[in-house]
Amino acid sequence: MTTNTVSSLCVILSLTVNSWMTRGLSATENINVESIPRRPSVALCNETQLLSEMEVCGEGFKREMAYVDPQNWCNLTHFISVYHVFSLCTETNAGRINCYWPNPLVESYIIRIHKHFFSNCTLERVILVDPPDDTLTILILIPVFLTLAMIALVVWCSKRSDILA
């Protein structure tokens, strides 16, 4: 046998052995397609029904906010429970009709509600000022003196332990 014949036989033999070995490793040959459980089909979001449900939630919120004095619309403590019910209503109804929450439609409706009720609520910025110089001096010196006192106490106790020992 010549070298070319031997190398050709080796290549053919290695390819045959390789195909035998990998045949058992292939996942597609041993799968019964009928045995694979099918995923349930996902229902699409019905946006018309979603908007209708948001209107129902919004009407309930508007009805409850009618009992809150408009001067208190910017004070969250006066309507937090009403807003919680509104938020829960939108989330529950969106989930019930197979829509994720929040989504752009729900967000736009909530923004409309906010513009209607809370557009006059301005955020008052707190202007931070430094404390008076006397107060600032006391606040700085107290920890400095406490640190010095602790150092003196440690040094004094270490000298006393030498005498007591």
TrEMBL record:
Its main location: membrane. InterPro entries: RAMP (IPR006985), RAMP_sf (IPR038126). The chain crosses the membrane at residues 136-157. GO terms for biological process: calcium ion transport; cellular response to hormone stimulus; G protein-coupled receptor signaling pathway; intracellular protein transport; protein localization to plasma membrane; receptor internalization; regulation of G protein-coupled receptor signaling pathway. It comes from the Eukaryota. GO terms for molecular function: coreceptor activity. Residues 1-27 form the signal peptide. It is found in: Cell membrane. The keyword Cell membrane applies. Keywords: Cell membrane, Disulfide bond, Glycoprotein, Membrane, Receptor, Signal, Transmembrane, Transmembrane helix, Transport. GO terms for cellular component: cell surface; plasma membrane; receptor complex. Belongs to the RAMP family. This is Receptor activity-modifying protein 3. The gene is LOC120050348.
